[in-house]
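User: For documentation purposes, I need each entry recorded in a consistent format: the amino acid sequence on its own, followed directly by the corresponding structure tokens. There are two entries in this batch. Please keep commentary to a minimum and don't merge the entries.

Assistant: Recorded as requested. Entry 1:
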Amino acid sequence: MRLPNLPLVAPMLATPGTLPAPDQDLRWAYETKQDGQRAVVYLPGDGSVTLRARSGEDITAAYPELGALGGALGTTAAVLDGEVLVLDERGRGDFQLLQSRMGLARSPGRAARRARQAPAHLVLFDVMHLDGDLTGRGYAWRRRTLESLALEGPFWSTPTALVGHGEEALRATRASGLEGLVCKRLDSVYEPGVRSRSWIKIRNLRTVDVLVGGWVPGRGRLSGLPGAVLVGQRDQGRLRYVGSVGTGWSAAERAELARLLRAAETGRCPFDTLPRAAEARWVLPRLVGEVRYSTRTRAGLLRQPSWLRLRPDLAPEDSAADLP
């Protein structure tokens, strides 16, 4: 369905990569990588607002507090790019809190209740249409245009982008515990639906040593092998469950891990709380592994974990670091 006077625009996507070369630094802008739900915002100029997810799904009803944005530009029609967040007590996007808001587009009553408990905040970072198509304009021009709209409100904002100083910007996101950085070439046009090298995303990944306390059998070609391992860290004498890791092994590494897990089998769950893992098999927590992850949930679980390597050089008691 097309909106009055507005084209549907698929969001432009960033390509994973690294910082631009130092001699190219001033040709790029740097934005904080947000930990939220991507949203294309349609303002027809009649006081209404429509939000569409990256999939194209209409998610407007899930975020009723953003309805007032519909009148922010008066009768000017616009299509904006942004990200819906739910902020924690430090003012940072918390994906776990956001999950309680996602998927409520068909439940307006629940959406309204959750809006009072965990209000959404829309971060705006691009404009693709403003009484006409802007996708062929360069990023720097679009960014100036977006900032001139002064879209600042109780549930939305337009954070500034930094031109140049990429290394400093990346260090700042790491020091603040933010998800990462998005680098955007100043002369880049907006490419709807394209994963472009003109936008580069850098995710801040952390590593942590964990103890393997269980595993879940794989299926299909992984039958008889671990599909995922259940890991934890020592916390005041207890083994605290911190998540399930299901990626990062070669075929040979997975087979070797299966051998080690079978040798450590036990009938008792070693974690202080029973993980929600169907068909879990428990092992004595003596295998130490190094895991890469992006952030932790409020409950301390690892987000987007990936296995790096076994750490036979570490004793099981060495896995107590980095607990929140």
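Entry 2:
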Amino acid sequence: MAVLTLDRWNLAIGDGRPLLVIAGLNVIEDEALALATAHHLKGVCAELGLPYVFKASFDKANRSSIMSYRGPGLEEGLRVLAEVKRQVQVPIATDIHTPEQAEVVAAVAEIVQIPAFLCRQTDLVTAAARATRAAGGWLHVKKGQFLAPWDCRNIRDKVREAAPGDDFLILCERGASFGYNNLVVDMLGIEEMQGLGVPVTIDATHAVQLPGADPRTNAASTGGRRSGVPVIAKAAVAAGADGVFLEFHPEPDKALCDGPSCLPLDSARDLLATLKAVHAAVARS
């Protein structure tokens, strides 16, 4: 399996490397919250000796309802992310939704992310691959809820054809659709995707979603099972995941997007300490 490195941030992911933590907010709500969250999570990861990347979305384009909060948009969102990078001194991860966003986002974000719903959009994947390669970053592609793990071979091949050279792709497991309004995670899929020669992360936050099933809004938004996030994260790291993707909020029930699936910010240290221990135990086995 490939080991990816970002030397300017002293970051690595892959076989034999520390567990990578990609964590932050689901969506940018305001600059102050983004800065506070990044400071807190960077401090926790520094204390635990875990490599850290701050994540937040500038636009949540895949929403259940047209009334759902989407974020500040591209221009303001990238300004906030650039400010977080400058003040907190952390690398950035954020997602894109159209090919036209690839270059400008890759200029700010070390990790450009493709949302699960869009992982088969060839123009988007290839534009992101070219822009990320040119900027020297990593491409993080979430496996669609509709794909088998081995189907990610086609994603890998698109990226390699669009931007030949050293590997810079990370695949992300986030569950598969299981009937209506439900997701399940097949932990065997982590090894299957690693068999494609790429590192694999677990998005434990979105893996506990109940799509279109939030009783608070009469199904106008996505529900979730917050208590399941640590369960999925620990199981995936035990199964060999190379990194974790987690979303936090100081007051999850007041979060403007996907509150039922995100964790309280003050729970980050205990969970990440456990995940580090699990990762170390797997490495020794």
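Summary note for entry 2:
The chain has one domain: 4-284.
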